[in-house]
Design brief:
By secondary structure, this protein is mainly α. The protein has a domain at 10-51. The chain is 35% helix and 4% strand. It has a two-stranded antiparallel sheet with strand order 1-2. It is elongated, with a radius of gyration of 32 Å.
């Protein structure tokens, strides 16, 4: 970027290298500093735009009133559950094997 913008100092660059687990020996510091300065410059450009409108206005909203209410109903008694299937044993339904060998 040819425009003049904020530049980061050496200490901030060292902190950035530490946080990103890069070593100064394995990194071209001049190139990295220029890239980070360019990124900071992009934020300067973005800060010039009006962002006063609510960004969440672009997304649909749901209200709690539109959701159905929970209704508690009685469950089945064990004798009734046993009548549903002949393959009921020890409190569980016996079902055919779905997954093959090796699963």
């Amino acid at each position: 970027m040819a425009t003049q913008h904020k530049q980061i100092d050496a200490q901030t660059l060292e902190n950035l290298l530490y946080l990103s687990r890069l070593s100064p020996e394995s990194t071209n510091m001049e190139t990295l500093k220029k890239q980070v300065d360019d990124i900071v410059g992009y934020f300067d450009i973005l800060s010039k735009y009006d962002d006063s409108e609510n960004p969440y206005d672009a997304y649909p909203t749901t209200t709690a009133d539109a959701l159905r209410g929970d209704t508690i109903v009685e469950g089945l008694d064990m004798p009734d559950v046993k009548k549903v299937s002949k393959d009921f044993m020890d409190g569980y339904f016996q079902v055919p094997k779905v997954l093959g060998e090796g699963a």
